Amino acid sequence: MMSTRLLTVTEAESRLSEIRQKIDAAAQKCGRSPLDIKLLAVSKTFPTQMIATYLGLGQLDFGESYIQEARDKASELAGNPIKPIWHFIGHLQSNKAKYAAHFVDVLHSLDSMSLASELNLRAAALGKKIKVYLQVNVSGENTKSGMKPDELPGFLDQLSGLPSLTPEGLMTMPPFNPDPEVSRPHFAALRDLRDKYAPQLPGLSMGMSGDFMVAIEEGATIVRVGTALFGQRD
Ligand SMILES: *Cc1c(COP(=O)(O)O)cnc(C)c1O
After folding, report:
1. Is-contact 219 227, C-beta < 8 A?
2. Does the reported pTM lie above 0.85?
3. Strand partners, 63
4. Is the CB of 41 under 6 A from ligand 1?
């Protein structure tokens, strides 16, 4: 399932600078500082060697979706001189929290209280804190994971009793559509939910290869870009 084609350092460098330029342009367009927008390189299904290439180019944040694959990559890179920051963006079952706690720095897909409690316990046992984004299903599409918007206030309340989890903000993933403008209202809805229920939380994890510029215009603080950096997934 690993994609085989490796990018050369030069190719990787030019993709990275192209994305960074687009981030700058989108930020400029709406009067935001590009420094407030983080690029998360979504490396799922791509070989560890590609992560090492991007690490060497100064890209530190990587996103993975499958726990076993993520664990393998984290252990392969454990001795790397530059340490990656691991973000987990896929659905995580509570019974896998024990694995995630060991290496995940930021979880973008927190969507159940049982996962939150389990992760909190595991992180506490390791003496670490894990940053979390609450995944919200703003579109109401029932195939997507994420909590309902009206579950947010109660969830945030309960999270305050879990000291090893540090809430950073909200995350969403709109239904796929090739037209980025179709995603815009979903991004705006997530920002409105943040402003309404969690104004103290700075983070909005939204936007992917096809729509990150629109997401930035709607307030994204971290964009999750896979294909545009690594190529097409099989
Ligand atoms: C795969 C994935 C991405 C990256 O998608 P691209 O279209 O390849 O940029 C972003 N977010 C989540 C949650 C993903 O699963």
Report:
1. no
2. yes
3. 42, 87
4. no
User: What are the C-alpha distances in Å from 48 to residues 3, 110, 127, 206, 230?
Assistant: 11, 25, 27, 24, 11
Give the separation between CA 59 and CA 148, rounded to whole angstroms: 33
Other C-beta atoms closer than 10 Å to the C-beta of 80 total: 13
Please tell me if the CB atom of residue 191 comes closer than 6 angstroms to any atom of ligand 1: no
Distance 49 CA to ligand 1 centre (A): 19
Any idea of the CA torsion for 214, 106, 145, 172, to the nearest 10 degrees? -20
Q: What averages of pLDDT result for each successive group of 10 residues across the chain (234 residues)?
A: 76 98 98 98 97 98 98 96 97 97 98 97 98 94 83 96 98 95 98 96 97 98 98 90
The pLDDT value recorded for residue 83 is 94
**Looking at residue 23, what is its pLDDT?**
98
Strands 38-42 and 61-64: parallel
Evaluate: CB of 42 within 6 angstroms of ligand 1: yes
DSSP 154-222: HHHHHHTT-TTEEEEEEE--PPP-S-HHHHHHHHHHHHHHHHHH-TT--EEE---TTTHHHHHHTT-SE
pLDDT of res. 142: 67
176/166 Cα distance (integer angstroms): 29
124: CB partners within 8 A, 6+ apart = 163, 164
d(CA 38, CA 224): 9
DSSP three-state, residue 11: helix
